[in-house]
Design goal:
Oligomer: heterodimer
Strand order of the largest sheet of chain B: 7-6-8-9-10-14-15
CATH class of the largest domain in chain B: Alpha Beta
Order of helices and strands of chain B: HHEHEHEHEEHEHEHEHEHHEHHHEEEEE
Structural class of chain A: mainly alpha
Strand content of chain A: under 5%
Radius of gyration of chain A: 20 Å
Number of domains of chain A: 1
Distance between the termini of chain B: 26 Å
CATH architecture of the largest domain in chain B: 3-Layer(aba) Sandwich
């Protein structure tokens, strides 16, 4: 297939394809981070993850409408405020859900699957009733559209770069919070041994609630960022949920590094294969590879050594 | 059948219709009993349908919940509007239309179940419904078994024909060929890149388009790509498009993927005012989600645009907005759904009966002059003769009409040489 193209053409395509892979990588990390915290640290199988993302997207849409109507002069910067609001809204809803639903199910992790799946259906219908069944179009400020013109044939999408920067920022913050801060130590203590953690004076209920809230909040930010590249509708969250679980499970549930490594390998495989064959076939081969590797390493790429 | 012959056949009917219409204002002033002038129920309903002396019941069967609600909401709205207008004009054979709405919930077995409920329990005289081909294929055996009448609004892949279905949208050759001819002639297009969602409609449509490009237009298809439904990442295929530099990108991506595709196309620096893109899957409804700024400049090929400049359409658009809100947009399928109740009414009046067998037999040749898209007529194969149009997407989310076929295009659900 490359016979007809000049070396220059090919070179720039490889560069652009590399970027495509990196953007996909960032998207995967961003959508999986929240779940990695909830599933990895708490063992809750959160099927409503996609709906928390879409809440973030709807918050972004509302913020954009608000700025257009009342503060058009500040419109170019609304996105940053929207992301913060998305974090707060999804995080708050997450904490509420934890208090009402999840905390009763910590001893029955498989039931969380069913409960959160029901929650996702309820949220979808709620979005449909409140915002309408049709998709909404989120208008972006001008500077976030279009591409950076590197050379005549290399163009880098600005929204892709934006997602990449955001992903790096959030990953670093999450890593800091989980591994360096006092609160992160408490979270890990609760994960390792809930009873002992309680005995040494950690308020495990509070830690649980905030952890779940943090995971959902990050999902909200991801949803907000994805308004740049995808659709915003009541069921859009469903588009992400399978890939998200794939990344988290493949990476090894309790490991942040595993999530990143897994997102990297899946996204690179996917985008390289997509270039050489049809999109559907690429997906099939990627999934086959993941299944094969999980058969050899059921605990995922990176797993904590646990004494059984 | 030639036009002349058709008109000849229909003229007694038209006279009757005109007389009926003239009588409408008078009838509304008469007391209730005056409806007895309408033909007796025993004469117009010999098969036990839900028809009384004053009412006739039809079913509306679409997804009001689930992932397809995005698309099917417009169809529900259009059908309700048509029924209300028909009732305001005196109903069908002197009977008001009452509707029972069922929710297919974006789930194909549910569609079949609800269709059966409408036909067996409610004995509806007709069903306006279905949207995806999958839902139609699920409902088809039910309407055939219980001898119902389905009015199906969506443009679809063809390869189907049933006594019990009237297809008010276009089948694939009707929709695609004229658009390809136009873009080949107008833009001198020789190379095409196909990209679609991975299911039956895009695959069949692209197969037809490929045959047409290769055999008739003597052009070349430089790429043909399919992505799973709901896919949100198109950067790789966009790179492939950049590499192959096609004259035309031909797309039938659907649903949420559409939004991702156009946003990423724009982000990758592909300027649709320079790169020709022809889509058969984006109507005004979809642009609502995509955002006008992401798709402005693209060409769409279908039979109806909200911006069509004719008296029927203006009246339709203003009635639709009055009923459903100023902000609602009307896409191709919504208009086709609006035709369903009207075509049914006209056919019932032509047949002089609500019996499904008589309606099925009377359907060929029924013409609807008040259609927003302009004159349409039912073909022997139960599809519609209709014009095909090319529109160009504008920033405000509307299409500007660029081209329309001079004549009605014949529906050809089993196209020879395209399979």
């Amino acid at each position: 297939m490359f016979g007809d193209y000049s070396l220059g053409d090919l070179g720039s395509i490889f560069v652009m394809q590399g970027f495509a892979g990196l953007i996909l990588f960032s998207v995967y990390v961003l959508m999986a981070l929240g779940l990695a915290i909830i599933f990895g640290q708490m063992g809750v199988i959160n099927m409503a993850h996609g709906e928390f993302m879409i809440l973030g997207a709807y918050v972004t849409w509302m913020t954009s409408n608000f700025f257009q109507s009342y503060l058009p002069s500040l419109f170019s910067g609304y996105f940053f405020l929207a992301m913060i609001l998305a974090f707060v809204a999804s995080g708050a809803l997450g904490m509420l859900v934890e208090w009402v639903l999840i905390r009763h199910l910590y001893k029955r992790p498989l039931d969380t699957l069913l409960a959160t799946w029901g929650l996702s259906l309820m949220l979808q219908q709620a979005y449909r009733s409140v915002f309408g069944a049709r998709e909404v179009g989120v208008e972006l400020p001008q500077w976030m559209l279009g591409s950076l013109h590197v050379t005549d044939s290399i163009e880098v999408p600005i929204n892709g770069v934006f997602v990449m920067c955001l992903t790096v920022l959030i990953t670093i913050s999450v890593a800091y919070v989980l591994y360096m801060s006092r609160w992160g130590r408490q979270v890990r203590a609760v994960v390792q041994n809930r009873i002992m953690a309680g005995a040494v004076g950690i308020n495990t209920e509070k830690v649980d609630r905030y952890t779940f809230g943090l995971g959902c909040g990050i999902a909200g930010v991801a949803g907000s960022a994805f308004t740049m590249i995808g659709s915003t509708g009541p069921t859009s969250g469903q588009l992400y949920i399978v890939d998200t679980f794939l990344v988290v499970v493949f990476g090894g549930a309790a490991s942040l590094l595993g999530t990143i490594a897994s997102a990297f390998s899946i996204s690179q495989t996917q985008s390289t294969l997509e270039f050489f064959m049809s999109g559907s076939m690429a997906k099939v081969l990627t999934l086959l590879a993941v299944v094969g590797i999980l058969m050899l390493r059921p605990q995922g790429l990176f797993a904590l050594k646990v004494r059984k | 059948m030639s036009d002349e012959a058709n008109k000849g056949l229909l003229s007694p009917l038209r006279r009757k219709l005109l007389m009926g219409m003239a009588a409408v204002p008078a009838m509304t002033m008469l007391p209730r009993g005056a409806f007895a002038q309408a033909p007796a129920t025993s004469a117009v309903n010999t098969t036990g349908l839900a028809v009384t002396d004053t009412e006739v019941t039809v079913g509306i069967l679409h997804s009001a919940t689930g992932t397809m609600a995005i698309s099917e909401t417009g169809s529900i709205q259009a059908e309700k509007l048509a029924i209300e207008q028909i009732n305001a004009a005196g109903g069908v054979l002197g009977r008001k239309i009452k509707f029972i709405q069922e929710d297919g919930a974006s789930d194909w077995p549910t569609f079949a179940e609800k269709a059966k409920k409408l036909l067996v329990n409610d004995k509806v005289a007709a069903i306006m419904g279905c949207w995806t081909s999958a839902s139609r294929k699920a409902v088809l055996p039910v309407v055939e078994q219980y001898n119902g009448m389905l009015y199906y609004p969506t443009f679809y892949e063809g390869l189907e024909q049933s006594k019990n279905v009237i297809y008010t949208g276009q089948e694939a050759t009707q929709q695609i060929l004229a658009g390809l001819n136009w873009i080949a002639k107008e833009k001198g297009a020789k190379s095409f890149f196909f990209i679609g969602s991975d299911y039956i409609w895009p695959r069949t449509s692209n197969k037809i388009a490929r045959k047409h490009v290769e055999n008739v237009l003597k052009g070349k298809v430089v790429g043909e790509e399919y992505y799973p439904l709901g896919n949100t990442q198109f950067n790789s295929v966009i790179n492939k498009i950049k590499l192959t530099k096609p004259d035309v990108i031909f797309t039938d991506v659907v649903g949420g993927s559409n939004v991702a595709f156009y946003k990423q196309l724009k982000a990758a620096g592909i300027d649709l005012s320079k790169q020709a893109l022809l889509t058969i899957s984006v109507t005004e409804d979809e642009i609502d989600g995509i955002g006008g700024e992401n798709i402005a400049g693209a060409y769409a090929c279908m039979k109806y645009f909200q911006s069509l400049d004719n008296a029927n359409n203006k009246a339709f658009v203003s009635a639709f907005k009055k009923m459903w809100g100023e902000k609602t947009v009307i896409g191709d399928v919504t208009q086709a759904a609006y035709l369903g109740p009207w075509l049914w009414k006209l056919t019932v009046e032509k047949a002089g009966s609500f019996d499904v067998d008589k309606i099925a037999a009377a359907s060929p040749g029924v013409e609807f002059k008040g259609a927003p898209e302009g004159y349409v007529r039912i073909h022997e194969n139960h599809h519609l003769w209709s014009k095909t149009r090319v529109g160009r997407a504008k920033l405000d989310g509307q299409f500007e009409l660029i081209y329309e076929t001079a004549d009605l295009v014949e529906p050809d659900p089993f196209p020879k040489g395209y399979q």
